TrEMBL record:
Pfam families for the chain: Lactamase_B
Name of the protein: MBL fold metallo-hydrolase
Residue intervals of the Metallo-beta-lactamase domain: 23-245
PANTHER family reported in the protein's UniProt record: ENDORIBONUCLEASE LACTB2, METALLO-BETA-LACTAMASE SUPERFAMILY POTEIN
Length: 336
């Protein structure tokens, strides 16, 4: 399905198979050198067909694409980029912090990724019954079962604060780390419209976990980055937000305020919990509120939940409100 947003901007719904999100909105921006895409969609034959047909409905074709701007490296955004480049010769551009993630994913064998995940979950206090399926997969030589395991390496860097290569347009990159370390929004200055990727969505709180970096000790603070990035977008106050999921909307500062309040509440809840009893990230994830009861959360969702708990703990530590209990393994956190 295609929506004409006016002013030479369209969105194409590109389905994400077996995912409650439903689809990615791939945006098309008309430029003097041909269409520039913002994101490409999930790497699947049906998704590819939807993109190809959608571009035809916009009066162009995939072969005409001049360039692709990636808001971030996730497979529902970057999955089809390689195919688009093959079909068109278009350049692919991404922020270097996310390109680094792509490079790591391409180079690391799936086995290493599983080792990293198992170690991380064990250190966060995951019980054996949660780790058994992962250990079994590792022993059987299975890897991370995700499409786009060899995602395309971008050709260009998106430079924060600069205009991107969209001839005849003023489209400026805004670095909005948090959801991923190199997430960017793109501000179309004529009309003050913001392509917001996963940073700002009308009805979904984007996942904020720890950055998937085996080399990261305790230096990064993804939630802190995210909250700063949100405030940057509120100050920008775009007239219209064109997100990568759901639908276009107005009133970015109001939506930012809701998200800031949501995370402030989560931080306060966690701090109250560890003030009563020092706890592991896993125990805290169990007592946080999710979209369904903990017992009903699928295996993968629990991994995401514990990462979310850890991102909030990292923030509390940076604020001086929590600290790891010395010598605890798995690590427990106490109120500071
Ligand atoms: Zn994402
Ligand atoms: Zn997404």
């Amino acid at each position: 399905m295609v929506t004409d947003h006016g002013g030479g901007v369209w969105s194409v719904q590109v389905p994400i198979p077996d995912n409650p999100l439903g689809y990615t909105l791939v945006h098309l921006l008309d430029t003097d050198r041909g269409p520039v895409l913002v994101d490409t969609g999930w790497d699947d034959p049906d998704s590819w067909d939807a993109l190809v047909n959608g571009l035809a409905e916009c009066g162009t074709s995939v072969g005409e694409v001049y360039g692709v701007l990636l808001t971030h490296h996730h497979p529902d955004h970057h999955g089809l980029s390689g195919r688009v480049r093959e079909a068109s010769g278009a350049w692919l551009a991404m922020h270097p912090a996310d390109t680094a993630v792509v490079r790591r994913t391409r180079e690391a064998p799936a086995r290493l990724w599983l080792d990293y995940l198992i170690d991380k979950l064990a250190a966060a206090g995951a019980p054996d019954e949660h780790l058994v399926p992962l250990r079994t997969a590792r022993a059987a030589g299975r890897g991370r079962v995700l499409p786009g395991e060899r995602p395309a390496l971008p050709d260009r860097e998106i430079v924060p604060g600069e205009l991107v290569d969209a001839p005849g347009r003023r489209l400026r990159a805004i670095w909005t780390p948090g959801h991923t370390p190199g997430h960017v929004c793109l501000h179309l200055e004529e009309g003050r419209r913001l392509f917001s990727g996963d940073h700002l969505l009308p009805g979904i709180t984007p996942h904020i976990g720890l950055y998937e970096d085996p080399e990261d000790g305790t230096a990064s603070d993804p939630l802190g980055d995210y909250l700063d990035s949100l405030e940057r977008i509120a100050r920008l106050d775009p007239a219209e937000v064109l997100p990568a999921h759901q639908h276009a909307f107005a009133g970015a500062p109001d939506r930012v305020r809701e998200l800031l309040a949501h995370h402030a509440e989560r931080l306060a809840d966690l701090r109250a919990l560890i003030a009563v009893r020092p706890s592991t990230p896993w125990q805290l994830a169990e007592s946080m509120r999710w979209n369904r009861a903990w017992d009903e959360l699928p295996h993968r969702s629990r991994n995401i939940a514990v990462a979310e708990a850890e991102a909030h703990l990292r923030r509390l530590v940076k604020l001086g409100l929590a600290e790891p209990v010395a010598g605890s393994h798995p690590v427990r956190y106490a109120a500071a």
